[in-house]
Amino acid sequence: MSTVRLLVLGSILRRGVSHGYAVLRDMTTWRVDTWTNVKPGSIYHALDKLESQGMIEAAASGAGAKLGPSRKEYSVTKQGKAEFFRLLEAALVSPDILQFSAGVAFMEWLPRNEVIALLEQRRSVLDASLRLLKSLPVDERPSEPSRHPELVGIWIGYVESEAASTERILANVQAGRYDFKSERLEAE
């Protein structure tokens, strides 16, 4: 649920005000189904939950020149913005690839130096995981799954890949790639 919450809050924050269909359209356009486990039905459930928790506010959109039924338009509350940043920071240190992917999608909302610190923290967690995995005993003829060399090998390969990706992203952020929102505001 935290990945869905992060994506929904991020979509609304990017737009300022948004209705559920626009959030769904963002998710479809961003192809989140290819890099997260977010499903279309979970987006509307998240909107309802976020509204009931005071993270977003809803108001019926004005009739204006649009034909058809009015829709609820949402904006992120102060509490919702704090939740977005809490989820974003947690995602950028998460060893879970789905949460981390959502964090990378919105990392420009944080100051560059904070993203660097969070990525360094994630790298440390992954390095500790690698040390642990490489220390696990394995048996040629394992009596239990945790001692299977192929299983341990799969996890070592996965964590090595995650560590390499984190290192690459960290190097790019440190090299000045990407436009961070705080730097755009300072330039104005």
Structure description:
Helices cover 66% and strands 6% of the residues. It is mainly α and 188 residues long. The chain folds into 2 domains: 2-90, Arc Repressor Mutant, subunit A (Orthogonal Bundle), CATH 1.10.10; 110-187. A 3-stranded antiparallel sheet has the order 1-3-2. The longest helix has 26 residues, at 149-174. The model has no long low-confidence stretch (mean pLDDT 90).
Key attributes of the depicted protein:
188 residues, mainly alpha, Arc Repressor Mutant, subunit A, 2 domains, 3-stranded antiparallel β-sheet, 9 helices, 6% strand, WH-like_DNA-bd_sf, Transcriptional regulator, WH_DNA-bd_sf, Metal_resp_DNA-bind_regulator
Task: Tell me the layout of helices and strands.
Elements lengths: L1 H14 L2 E2 H10 L2 H4 L4 H13 L3 E5 L11 E5 L1 H16 L3 H10 L5 H24 L13 H26 L6 H7 L1
Antiparallel strand pairs: 1-3, 2-3
Helix pairs in contact: 1-5, 1-6, 2-4, 5-6, 7-8
Please sum up the structure shown.
It comes from Thermobacillus xylanilyticus. By secondary structure, the protein is mainly alpha-helical.
Q: Just give the CATH class of the largest domain.
A: Mainly Alpha
How is the biggest beta sheet arranged? 3 strands, antiparallel
- Assembly state of the chains shown: single chain
CATH superfamily of the largest domain: Winged helix-like DNA-binding domain superfamily/Winged helix DNA-binding domain
Name the structural class: mainly alpha
Summarize the amount of helix as a percent range: 55-70%
- Gyration radius (Cα, Å) is 20 Å
Estimate the mean pLDDT confidence.
90
How many domains make up the 3D coordinates?
2
CATH architecture annotation of the largest domain: Orthogonal Bundle
Number of helices: 9
Give the percentage of residues in beta strands: 5-15%
